[in-house]
Automatic annotation (TrEMBL):
InterPro entries: Aldolase_TIM, DeoC, DeoC/FbaB/LacD_aldolase. It comes from the Bacteria. This is Deoxyribose-phosphate aldolase. Pathway: Carbohydrate degradation; 2-deoxy-D-ribose 1-phosphate degradation; D-glyceraldehyde 3-phosphate and acetaldehyde from 2-deoxy-alpha-D-ribose 1-phosphate: step 2/2. The lineage of its organism: Bacteria, Pseudomonadati, Pseudomonadota, Alphaproteobacteria, Hyphomicrobiales. It is an enzyme of class 4 (lyase). It catalyses: 2-deoxy-D-ribose 5-phosphate = D-glyceraldehyde 3-phosphate + acetaldehyde. One of its GO terms (biological process) is deoxyribonucleotide catabolic process. One of its GO terms (cellular component) is cytoplasm. SMART domains: DeoC.
Length: 256
């Protein structure tokens, strides 16, 4: 899809958005507001992404089979939990009504040279949620070395990820176009049916459009769709709605 205007980019980004609230002060009222915000006059976001403790509440609001999917996080944000604990988190999340699981790899162990820790974790969680969409968070801003980002991408894909995701949004460096380029090329070169999710720090339609254009340049003009691409963001929706309503000029993309 060739994006011709900020309005087209905004509408497309909305359909790809995992509208996120992973704030420490999140409560039931904030979840209710998130569910409402995800359903806009211009269409729905792809999903909401929330803490596990709020899944059941969100499912009560959205109801079974709702077009706005419910994503949650496990082994989040530190990536330090034992495999058995993460599997337990995952099983409970699915039982409560989550459609999608965003899993943080044990990135500190990986950085220290333990590739098997990544494979073991991803395979175990994949087995625990065979019907759910599994997005694997690499925490690229902490890995830093782009060769290791590439290797983490390959390991996550081989172990059963449905998506590879840049970041938790909880560290100093989150999504960057550099990491996105490496991860998208890993998807292309492994020839896997795997999606990509940049997350953290993407707050404008102009920012989002840069990632969309990068994905299209690497994987082709028809590759990007909700089943292959998501944005993890909390404030991006505000700029999307501003552009779609014509209430303000689109803001310039942030640096990275």
């Amino acid at each position: 899809m060739e994006l011709q205007s900020p309005r087209e980019a905004a509408a497309f980004a909305l359909s790809l958005l995992d509208l996120t609230n992973l704030r420490d002060d999140c409560d039931n009222a904030a979840i209710e507001n998130l569910c409402l915000r995800a359903q806009t006059p211009y269409g729905n976001s792809a999903a909401i992404c929330i803490w596990p403790r709020f899944i059941a509440h969100a499912r009560n609001i959205l109801g079974p089979g709702h077009p706005v999917r419910i994503a949650t996080v496990v082994n989040f944000p530190s990536g330090d939990l034992a495999v058995a604990e993460v599997v337990e988190e995952t099983l409970k999340a699915v039982e409560d009504g989550a459609d999608e699981i965003d899993l943080v790899i044990p990135y500190k162990a990986f950085i220290a040279g333990d590739e098997a820790a990544v494979t073991t974790m991803v395979e175990a969680v994949r087995a625990a949620c065979p019907q759910s969409t599994l997005k694997v968070i690499l925490e690229t801003g902490e890995i830093r070395d782009m060769a290791l980002v590439r290797r983490a991408s390959e390991l996550a894909i081989a172990a059963g990820a449905d998506f590879i995701k840049t970041s938790t949004g909880k560290v100093q460096v989150n999504a960057t176009l550099e990491a996105a380029d490496i991860m998208l090329r890993a998807i292309r070169e492994t020839k896997a049916k795997v999606g990509f999710k940049p997350a953290g720090g993407i707050s404008t339609v102009a920012d989002a459009d840069l990632y969309l254009r990068l994905a299209e340049s690497i994987l082709g003009p028809n590759w990007v769709m909700p089943s292959t691409f998501r944005f993890g963001a909390s404030s991006l929706l505000d700029d999307i709605l501003a552009v779609l309503s014509g209430s303000t000029a689109p803001r310039a993309a942030a640096g990275y």
